[in-house]
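Sequence and structure are kept together here, with a separate record for every protein. A complete record is shown below as an example:
=====
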Amino acid sequence: MTVIVRALSFVFASAVLFSGCVLAQEARQSIALLDCTLIDDNAAYNDADINRIQSQRLQMISSTLRDDVHQRALFEVADNARANDLIASLQSGQDMSACNGCELRVARELGASRVGVCWVQKISNLILNMNLRVEDAHSGATLFQRSVDIRGNTDQSWRRGAKALVDLLANDASALH
């Protein structure tokens, strides 16, 4: 009889633990991560090649942020393609990193509970600053905002900066729930 009671207790405890894990996954917030933008303090000195490289790096870190957030299961990452028309319309007239709430429209269109806004400020080829802000899509409240300095204008330094931002986000429980 004791063996049966222990076995039933084990099965019950396992079921409770498993259902808690399932509920935790279901409770995970969704996020619309917008493409990163660039504030280039030296834009007047750029040629077409520099602009092309920087545009590629912005796409690279935008994808890196989405992939890392998804792989680490911090949020359900929304597919921005469903809001391409809205995003293009908003981007045509303003900077998405400082548009006074337009980013919230994108999150709502995608049914996401959070929106992530990323921007890189290029002070020089040696000094860059990468930023990430996460907001509640309904209230607009900022839940997370961090910045990392990166040295060197290379693919590797940009990837490291994006990883550092996701590390900071992963360690901020208040931003995730």
Observations:
- Residues 2-26 form the longest helix (25 residues).
